[in-house]
Amino acid sequence: MSGISRSDNSLLARWWRNIDHWTLGSIGLLIGFGYILMMAASPAVAQRIGASRDVFIFKQVMFLSIAALTIIFISMLSPQTIKKLSIIGTFIAIFATAYTLVHGMDIKGAKRWIALPIMSLQPSEFLKPCFAIFTAWLLTEWKRRFYIPGIFVALGVYGIILFILKSQPDIGMLAVITAVLLTQLFINGLNMFWIFSGLGGMVAAFIGAYIALPHVRSRVERFIHPEVGDHYQIDTALRAFGNGGLWGRGPGEGRVKDLLPDAHADFVFAVAGEEYGMIICCIIIFIFCFIVVRTLLKLIKEDDPFIILAASGLITGFGLQAFINMGSTLHLIPTKGMTLPFISYGGSSALSIALTIGMVLALTRRRIEAPQFFKNNNQPFSKRSILR
């Protein structure tokens, strides 16, 4: 597409000229790693559960293909369209997440999924990007017009989300959404007293979860006291990294995928470490860091508060999810069942992350001011940006 003429004014040509090619290329690399690691990790998992050897590969190819198309489609939309869709999407996702409490699938003691014909849908995954945009809109309106209680509406909706996710329970998802909200409040200029109050609330909530939820208490105690409890998955994952060394054992030569039930999902990073070595793991980490840092650097030049709040919230959730997955696999934090964006197996995760990145690309596209002849002679032209 590099040969597109500057005179070509089609939608695809304008999109290609204004999109962030570096971020788009980095996402393409992550999707490529996702394909490779799924072919390495999933056949053994499928055989272990008595399914067809290639079932997870075929499904993930479909999920990632749909995710790639979603990124392209969403990144073509205007910020106003993304705002409207996200407001609607927030309430749909809240309703669907609440629906899981009544009719959801119970897996390992948690009701987070809705059974569909070809996949299990986790509605809370879509809360992350939609709620980030929804909050950015409310905070922007609150700052522009103080009579609009945007911050109180955002906190009220967050309270509903908190109750639903605590009931599932899904403490990891709640932690990510909370971190995104606090980041947006901080960037929006909220008094530091309230920021620290929110952090204090997170600590109190963590202590409450530790006391009230046995599975949270078990994970924390096993992290703090490695000699106590069952550490089979973590110990196996750490041995995989050690076996892989610098260059890895080679494609298909790893053994961790034969031992871990979640080798294709939560522990796919261990498969990368064993078969492709520390070099590839560092490249994957670098790609995630590059996407986050590049997005934040682009926002420094942005003067639209909505775009700043929305994109910073989206990229915070993206980066935090990657950190939680890799950190728990490396035993840097207590284990948490959270996917590695575009690399771990999962339809809901792939589509929600695609929605996130598509929105980030749309919000950070290159824009120019409207030319003079676009102005109305009778009304002053509002200061807004348009696509080339």
From TrEMBL:
Enzyme Commission number(s): 2.4.99.28
Organism: Commensalibacter nepenthis
Protein name: Probable peptidoglycan glycosyltransferase FtsW
Catalysed transformations (reactions): [GlcNAc-(1->4)-Mur2Ac(oyl-L-Ala-gamma-D-Glu-L-Lys-D-Ala-D-Ala)](n)-di-trans,octa-cis-undecaprenyl diphosphate + beta-D-GlcNAc-(1->4)-Mur2Ac(oyl-L-Ala-gamma-D-Glu-L-Lys-D-Ala-D-Ala)-di-trans,octa-cis-undecaprenyl diphosphate = [GlcNAc-(1->4)-Mur2Ac(oyl-L-Ala-gamma-D-Glu-L-Lys-D-Ala-D-Ala)](n+1)-di-trans,octa-cis-undecaprenyl diphosphate + di-trans,octa-cis-undecaprenyl diphosphate + H(+)
Domain of life: Bacteria
Class of this enzyme: transferase
Subcellular localization: Membrane
Family: Belongs to the SEDS family. FtsW subfamily.
Glycosyltransferase is among the record's keywords: yes
UniProtKB keywords: Cell shape, Glycosyltransferase, Membrane, Peptidoglycan synthesis, Transferase, Transmembrane, Transmembrane helix
InterPro entries named in the record: FtsW/RodA
Membrane topology: Multi-pass membrane protein
Transmembrane segments: 21-45, 57-78, 85-102, 114-139, 146-165, 171-187, 194-213, 276-297, 306-324, 344-363
Coiled coil (UniProt feature): none
